[in-house]
Amino acid sequence: MEINLTKPEGVDSYDSRSEGVEMGDAAKDLTAGTVGGAAQLIVGHPFDTIKVKLQSQPAPLPGQPPKYSGAMDAVKQTMIAEGPRGLYKGMGVPLATVAAFNAVLFTVRGQMEGLLRSEPGAPLTVNQQMLMQSLVNRLQAQSALAGSAASSAAAKYGGPMDVTKHVVREAGVRGLFKGMVPTLAREVPGNAVLFGVYEALKQYFAGGKDTSGLGRWPLMVAGGLGGASFWLSVYPTDVVKSVIQVDDYKNPKYSGSVDALRKIAAAEGIKGLYRGFGPAMARSVPANAACFLAYEMIRSSLG
């Protein structure tokens, strides 16, 4: 058998040709992922602020009302005390980390899709989606740890640098990684569900065919419902993460994730594990709709 190794005219080598295509796609995913992450944060941060306030408020003493009676009360008190800026307090850290995180996430995911697809625009099989998400989740879980402690504590301090200074002074560098276990428990299964639902809905709207021609509304619906499915699947672990991250360093109330889970359930029942669930869901749908729409539109405009 003879193998034709003649190079096509105008192509220096097969390696350089394939490398150029991959680098171009990676740059597009990087740009689109950054814009998507920024859109997600701008739309969703006020909801996240209220969610964390509700999650981290101490359990009320017997016979006394809680600090916030609900999401709207938390919004009202925040607006009275701090004005509209209070809803965006602490956005500096997540703006940097979420944009960078999504940039890397969508870049890796785009490259994985390109490797696994049988042809451009072809839907991935269930096994291919499971393989891709397993690899991407490792990246998600690792990247999410870096900014999680500072992001949740930002409202307590004057800003990102103030958060970092206090945390390192009180607990050392390891304090920046406080809440690592529940963060892992949230990110890995949660994002697997999010992207699984997003891709399944895209394929449903496209009739099982090429999804690249979908309009804005199908993309927004797929992204929004994917985001909602994230919180439906892992919300209690996010509550545990929040209470651990704002726990006192010198006199901690919780010895770990399991201890926090048990104490919250014992003091408040199952509903205690769903503090701030309303704002989380209210945030997730529009924030993820904006994120995925921005990503797909920017990615498509770049060719």
TrEMBL record:
Keyword Transmembrane: yes
Principal location class: mitochondrion
PROSITE patterns: SOLCAR
Any Pfam family: Mito_carr
Source taxonomy: Eukaryota, Viridiplantae, Streptophyta, Embryophyta, Tracheophyta
Gene3D superfamilies hit by this protein: Mitochondrial carrier domain
GO BP, sorted A to Z: mitochondrial L-ornithine transmembrane transport
UniProt-recorded name of the protein: Mitochondrial carrier protein
GO annotation, cellular component aspect: mitochondrial membrane
Solcar repeats: 24-115, 116-204, 214-301
GO MF: L-ornithine transmembrane transporter activity
Membrane topology designation: Multi-pass membrane protein
Location of this chain's protein in the cell: Mitochondrion membrane
Family, similarity comment: Belongs to the mitochondrial carrier (TC 2.A.29) family.
Organism from which the protein derives: Musa balbisiana (Banana)
Keywords recorded for this protein, A-Z: Membrane, Mitochondrion, Repeat, Transmembrane, Transmembrane helix, Transport
